[in-house]
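Question: what's this shape?

___
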Amino acid sequence: MLRPVRSADGLDDYLQDPFGRYLAGENFIHWYASPEVCGFTIWGRPGESQISRLTQVLDVELAPALPHVSLVDARRIEAPDPSGLSVLVKYMAPRISGFAQTVRRQALVRPEGLAGAVVGGFYSLVSSSYPTRAFADPLEGLGWLGRPEAEARALLAELDELVLQQQGQSPLIGELHRVLRPRLCEELNLADVAREMGMSERTLQRRLRDTGTSFQAEFNMVQVRAAQALLLESDAKLTAVAAEVGCASLQHFSSLFRKHTGESPSAWRAKHKPAP
């Protein structure tokens, strides 16, 4: 049976006694729900320093750790950072045989779109020494790892809440963004979105208002974040990025992007996109 996880008091404390506990970093949470089940959740745009911190924590899964299954939940990654991935490759390369001794099976939950392709391609380079499989749904991933559905749902609900706490985001907004992300190019119906979130249209509007925001404001925020990921991950023209995030025209997209970031899309890309 998986136990609820509680926070560890720093890296040394976690490495010494990880079971039933978690350790949070700037862009990740590593957790041990039992001696046989662990994993980490990672989000946003983790760079070199964040991945370096994660690699320090990953030592907890090496011997003398017991054989275990692992869930890598990367569905919230917005844009993989090449320098961060390089750090992870350098960490994993000399330790692959060590992880093969303790990791019996590992499930990867990939992000959508181009970020998912990048993460999946990298993952295949560092996980070939034990059975792995990629999933779009973490519940399916935990099922493949042999966890009963009720147990898996309870664990995921707890982990999702921890992630939202770390991000400083309310559970309602996090769930709304999750529903909106794959639907930016669709004719969105507020009632359909509310229904998928398990509430009425009126209830969703009221709860958003109580949070100090609105459906349109959060939809625009998701559009801008998706656009930022595309601008970093690809060389797509701005017109293509605009269409991909559901903007009717380049002018509309540029205006929306500038409103949220204070910069034009081209200026933002020039400032933030890593050099080849």
